[in-house]
Automatic annotation (TrEMBL):
UniProt xrefs under InterPro entries: BFD-like_2Fe2S-bd_dom (IPR007419), BFD-like_2Fe2S-bd_dom_sf (IPR041854), FAD/NAD-bd_sf (IPR036188), FAD/NAD-binding_dom (IPR023753), Metab_Enz_Cyan_OpOx_G3PDH (IPR051691), Opine_Oxase_asu/HCN_bsu (IPR017224)
Keyword field contains Oxidoreductase: yes
Domain FAD/NAD(P)-binding span(s) in chain numbering: 5-315
Organism annotation: Sulfitobacter profundi
Basic and acidic residues biased stretches: 459-468
Name under which the protein is recorded: FAD-dependent oxidoreductase
């Protein structure tokens, strides 16, 4: 592969925006993304859905412009590329089609986006219970539409999916929301700032109006979620809302409790992180331009802090301008002048975030679930087992992982780290458990593929191996 100046990991709005700006400024860009097409989660498959699936909305269709901008001779997009290692230099090791390779570059932009917050409750691992974001993937990539579904949880995404389902002709059976009137009242202090993002506020109000007009029942201040399987394959869903026990039967139970930054790659890269109390999650530290404390590494998008698609695109542009400046393609003054529009867009997009964080907080029973609730889906570790281990002296992620294997499954802790942190912090208001250091490979790869990769440079601090150990290793063959 030809030499590149900038490697962008992730082809969502942040990555696409950055790639276009960097290429137009003269940089050779390599984009790596696991999906078959650019777009990320927000604009997934948008180039194939042009003028189709209108139920996904105008905001989704607008992403086609970002995809079109990638048609540039200095941009190379590699689909189905899984990044599993990031070393100083920087250099990126990635897998594609069962073959891994290492590519160096002067700069790397991490635009890997967010993940849905784990939302554990009794029955969340049952067939027919799935994250709401998974349904959006199906709606954007296939002809499959959710039918006879209940949306449960909290956050604006529930309203968007409900409106899309209504426009697609399969309205949800009900919305079961955990936010309360008290949450909404506490959010009002952020409303003046949120008015800078008035279009987003108005969009949210229009979504709620559409849901009401469609006659979809809404339950608020809901708690005590429990799902059980019925013999016919349906899901029985029980909860309490405003002091009353409620029961619903549905074909699908779609849950959501907001999104949090995906930090596995940033933690593996050694980037410093900080606690965002408003969003209840750790996020990597960075400056206005997305620069981090690791040379050559920049951040943009929801992986650097939740802000939404518009904020991600603006942040991607700012990061690209800074990289162009560091590469000698722009002066500092020119960078600042060209960044004015993106900085204004970023401010407007982020203005509403404090209001949303206060209005739609995850409930305590999700952050610290009951003892019978499965926390680690991969290893089937319950909250009760974790509490018992904590009571016996285990005080951190690593100790819990060693004793219970919590976080050692295929997801590598992505579906349990946040909940485990909540349990470790339970009853310790003044003590914050730092996130564990993620280790390579940050995504699962085949042993045969790892063995076929050319040898990595030896750590200068590593003790010399004996002549016996320096014999060529036999290649691993997988069944």
């Amino acid at each position: 592969m030809a030499e590149v100046d900038l490697i962008i990991i992730g082809a969502g709005p942040a990555g696409m925006s950055a790639a276009a700006v960097a290429a137009q400024g003269g940089l050779r860009v390599l984009m790596l993304d696991e999906q078959p097409r650019p777009g990320g989660q927000i604009f997934r498959n948008v180039s194939q859905n042009r003028d189709q699936r209108g139920y996904l909305g105008k905001a989704y269709a607008a992403g086609a412009g970002l995809v079109d901008a990638l048609n540039h001779p200095r941009i190379t997009f590699e689909a189905g590329a899984t990044v599993w290692r990031l070393d100083k230099g920087p250099q990126v090791t990635w897998s594609q089609g069962g073959v891994s390779r290492t590519t160096p570059a002067a700069h790397v932009l991490l635009a890997t986006g967010a993940q849905e917050r784990p939302a554990p409750f009794l029955g969340w691992t049952l067939p027919g219970v799935m994250p709401a974001g998974a349904v959006q993937i199906l709606m954007k990539t296939t002809e499959m539409l959710p039918k006879d579904a209940v949306l449960a949880g909290s956050g604006p995404l529930l309203y968007l999916i409900a409106a899309q389902m209504i426009d697609a002709g399969c309205p949800p059976q009900a919305l079961v929301e955990t936010q309360s009137s008290r949450d909404m009242l506490s959010a009002l202090r952020h409303l003046p700032r949120a008015l800078f993002g008035a279009p987003t506020l108005l969009k949210g109000l229009s979504l709620i109006a559409k849901i009401r007009a469609a006659g979809v029942p809404r339950y608020t201040a809901a708690s005590d979620f429990r799902a059980t399987a019925k013999t016919n394959g349906d899901v029985a869903f029980s909860f309490r809302a405003k002091g009353r026990d409620e029961f619903l039967t549905c074909g699908l139970l779609l849950t959501h409790q907001g999104v949090i930054p995906g930090t596995h790659i940033t933690r593996a890269a050694g980037i410093a992180h900080e606690w965002n109390a408003a969003q209840g999650a750790f996020q990597p530290k960075h400056d206005l331009w997305g620069a981090t404390d690791q040379p050559g590494l920049h951040l943009a998008g929801d992986g650097a802090g939740i802000g939404g698609a518009e904020a991600a695109a603006a942040a991607g542009e700012l990061a690209a301008l800074n990289i162009l400046s560091q590469s000698g393609h722009l002066s500092t003054d020119t960078r600042n002048q060209q960044a004015a529009r993106a900085r204004a867009a970023l401010f407007r997009a982020r203005a509403i975030r404090p209001f949303l964080d206060a209005a739609y907080p995850p409930p305590a029973e999700i952050l610290t679930p009951s003892d019978d609730t499965i926390v680690c889906r991969c290893e089937e570790v319950s909250a009760g087992a974790i509490r018992q281990a904590i009571g016996e002296g285990e005080q951190g992620h690593r100790q819990i992982k060693t004793s219970l294997r919590c976080g050692m499954g295929p997801c590598q802790g992505r579906m349990c780290d946040a909940t485990l942190r909540g349990l470790l912090n339970e009853g310790r208001a003044n003590r914050l458990i730092s996130p564990p250091r993620a280790r390579s490979p940050i995504k699962p790869i085949a042993l045969g593929e790892l063995a076929a990769l050319s040898p990595l440079r030896r750590n200068p601090h590593e003790r010399p191996r004996s002549p016996e150990s320096q014999r060529p290793a036999q290649k691993l063959r997988l069944a």
